[in-house]
Design a protein that fits this description.
By secondary structure, this protein is α/β, with parallel strands linked by helices. The protein folds into two domains: 178 residues, Glycogen Phosphorylase B (Rossmann fold, 3-Layer(aba) Sandwich), CATH 3.40.50; 154 residues, Glycogen Phosphorylase B (Rossmann fold). The protein is built from 14 helices and twelve strands.
Length: 351
């Protein structure tokens, strides 16, 4: 298959698309990644057009529309995956059908179903790719604007990126902590983390953390991605995974398999999608259900390093066996091929 994937590629925001693309390429598929931060820089290196492309969302989308159509005409993809909110206009999605024979898939990473742009993107899509299983019964169907093909993208890890490291003394000083949290600042997260400030807590994320009373001293004002993030996973005694309820309902973050793949210990907020994995609380992952439970389990696991190691080792075995991009990408590729096969069947004349 030839796959055109239109997505954000800023590593400080998300990098799952890079790992998926590499896994598909290793399976023998051709993948072209198209990102606004790369394309705008490449085609508008200086001057007013470049500034407009970043300051005016409508102008940026028009730039992406024109660039996408040019790339699609040249690449002639079998599938076009549209991420973001979305990054190209619904009219561009419709035009792509006339320019290519591509099937259009809309990638829904967060649950922004009620935005006008998301609704129009769903209407223009042949299939949907969602991260949260909460969306599956809402979107899957054959009537009332639903889609027959709605696929789940679970959280995964890339063992080439997320792996155990031998850390230097400097690394442990820079990234080590009793508790590490990586993520944006929100009131529920503030309320949950404030009782943990009595421990050696370090927070990496948006700069809003710098002005939060009681937590500002825990904040590290530096971008976190790539090797630095892997070092944090390795150096922390406990990595907290806390979800954003406005963006996800059943889903859990990539943080869970990533930390476990590194051999680290993750204490994650319970989400229903965890039950779709082989991870078991207290055996191969640690799960908390509310703030009091979180504080109690932090105290318990900090006091029991051997138990942390046992859980981490069991979790890592499961992740490497079942929750890698190699495994997930292969399953998604089979589902995409079913969409293409359905198109071929429907295109054949009926006898």
């Amino acid at each position: 298959m030839r796959i055109l994937f239109i997505t954000w590629l800023n590593p400080t925001t998300t990098d799952y698309a890079l790992f998926l693309a590499r896994a598909w390429q290793e399976l023998g598929h051709e993948v072209h990644l198209l990102a606004p931060e790369i394309e705008n820089t490449a085609h508008y290196r200086s001057g007013v057009p470049y500034l407009l492309a970043w300051s005016d969302p409508l102008f940026r989308q028009r730039v992406m529309d024109r660039r996408t159509e040019a790339v699609a005409c040249s690449f002639q993809p079998d599938l076009t995956l549209v991420g973001g909110s979305p990054l190209i206009s619904p009219s561009c999605m419709a035009r792509l059908r006339g320019l290519t024979s591509s099937r259009i898939g809309y990638v829904i990473s967060y649950n922004h179903l009620f935005s006008t742009a998301a609704v129009k993107a769903i209407q223009q899509s042949d299939f949907l790719l969602v991260h949260d299983t909460y969306l599956l019964p809402l979107l899957r169907g054959t009537r009332y604007g639903r889609r027959e093909h709605v696929f789940w993208r679970p959280s995964m890890a890339d063992p080439q990126e997320h792996r155990p490291l031998s850390l230097s003394a400097w690394d442990r000083q820079a990234y080590g902590a009793e508790i590490a949290f990586i993520g944006g600042c929100g009131q529920s997260r503030i309320d949950t983390l404030q009782p943990l400030a009595q421990h050696d807590l370090r927070i990496w994320g948006g700069r809003q953390w710098a002005s939060v009373p009681g937590l500002s001293a825990c904040f590290r004002d530096e971008p976190v991605y790539g090797l630095k993030k892997t070092k944090i996973y390795n150096a922390a005694q406990i990595v907290i995974n806390m979800e954003d309820g406005e963006k996800q309902i059943n889903a859990f973050s990539e943080r869970v398999p990533e930390v476990l793949a590194c051999g680290g210990f993750v204490l994650t907020e319970w989400r229903q999608d965890l039950e779709r994995t082989s991870l078991i609380d207290g055996e191969s992952v640690a799960i908390y259900h509310d703030r009091n439970d979180l504080c109690e389990k932090v105290r318990h696991y900090l006091a029991h390093p051997a138990e942390r190691q046992r859980i981490s080792e069991a979790g890592r075995r499961i992740v490497l066996r079942e929750m890698t991009y190699a495994v997930g990408a292969a399953k998604l590729a089979q589902q995409f091929e079913a969409v293409l096969a359905a198109r071929c069947c429907s295109a054949q004349p009926q006898g």
